[in-house]
Amino acid sequence: MLRIRRRTVTGGVAIVSVAGEIDLVTADTFRDSLSPHLSDPTTTLLVCDLSQVEFLGCIGLSILVDARSALTARGARLSVVANNPAVLRPVTVTGLRDVLRLSPDLPAALDQSTVD
Q: Cα–Cα distance between 108 and 90 in angstroms, integer?
């Protein structure tokens, strides 16, 4: 089961908080939760809070990389809150730690809204 909470804060920052497992069964739900922000010109930073994710499969990693690419193409950024082994391990093992902008918590991710 996947639980998602979306909210927008001031300054073009959108937050998508995810809890549960991101796998083949829940991939479309996860992708759909990010999708509106990828083409929204008012979103300059999309924070994907995965601190409550219990499993992150390859499909979830692929969705994050695609989201990063879409945002980067229009000058926006993606920040991923990753502070648990269920997220950090697959990100590290696949070499995506150098690709995805990781933050240890939500306040640190939000601080990136002022960083180029």
A: 21
Closest CA to 48 of 4, 88, 96: 4
Q: Tokens 């219990």 map to which residue?
A: 54
Residue type, 47: V
CA quadruple 4, 9, 12, 18: dihedral, nearest 10:
-20
Q: Where do the domains of the chain lie?
A: 2-114
Fold of 2-114: Transcription Regulator spoIIAA (3.30.750)
Residue-wise pLDDT for 87-100, tens only, equals 999 999 999 998 99
Q: What are phi and psi of 75, to 5 degrees?
A: 85, 15
Cα(68)–Cα(62) distance, integer angstroms: 10
> Rounded mean pLDDT of the chain?
94
C-alpha–C-alpha distance, residues 86 and 20, integer Å: 10
